[in-house]
Amino acid sequence: MPIGTIVATAAGLVTTAGALTVGGMLLAGTINLVTSFGMGAIVRRIQRRRQGEQSDVAGVFGALRGGGIVPCSFIHGRWATAGSLVYRETWGEDGKTPNAYYVTVIAISDLPVTGLAGLIVNNKPVTVDLEGTPATQGVPIPEFAVEGKDHLWIRFHYGSQTAADSYLVAKFGAHADHPWTAAAVGTGVAYLIVTALVDNELFSGWPEFLAVVDGIRLYDLREDDTAGGEGDQRYADTATHGFSESPLVAAYNILRGLSYAGEPFYGGKRIGVLNLPF
User: Fold this and answer.
1) CB pairs under 8 A, 24+ apart, for 176-181?
2) Which helix (H) or strand (E) segment is 251 a member of?
3) Max CA-CA distance within the chain?
4) pTM for this one?
5) Facing residues of 127 across strands?
6) Torsion of CA 61, 65, 68, 74, to 10 degrees
7) pLDDT, tens digit (0-9, with 9 covering 90-100), for 214-248
8) C-alpha span between 6 and 203 (Å, rounded)
9) Residue 176 in this model has a pLDDT that exceeds 50
């Protein structure tokens, strides 16, 4: 089973080159991290496996986080997360029902991810086709259609976006209290936008979500023919890195240090390649 763990607890806030902001409030950025599942735990797990002992397994991050400053996190491997709350608002009418469309924005990872592998709504897997024909509010979830009328949609950003979400800007760009402006790009942040149309039979309350995510790109020595492997990956070129569920690949990357846009983000800084031979 992949480790794919969510990291970590915030120790303090530092400056960031690209943060997700709404109404001038910092919602996700670079944070000094104290890992809740650090390298010591990875090493202990590897040692126990070598010794034939039963290892512990990190649990799914199932509670939607929210509040003031939320710790930065990222995912490696395939894992499920409820993410952290970024924004909530309503719009539109449905018949005589005002504010009928309820929108929630959920941050999934503070480093770009490689894919959305699935979605679980109220503890049940649902069908997600990101390549399907979207409505304005996103691709519909067919399990929440009633007599041909959709009631749940999602939009997903992988963290590679260079502009604010057009749907959010169109609906809330001029909001009087907390607008979603063109400045709310969320650079480097993977996030999910969920829109639900009010229906008392479908929703007794706001549905709970788990996003099943294929995590960040990782460098794999075995895929680099200049470092003893076979392939085109290069450590210095993150565009050549790929998705991996290997805990050793994750450990290697964290020991050497993860970065974003050329800036250190998390992990080791002084451990050189000579200390981590093939």
Assistant:
1) 177/23, 178/22, 178/23, 178/87, 178/89, 179/22, 179/23, 180/22, 180/87, 180/89, 181/22, 181/23
2) helix 247-256
3) 68
4) 0.77
5) none
6) 40
7) 999 999 999 999 998 999 999 999 999 999 999 99
8) 29
9) yes
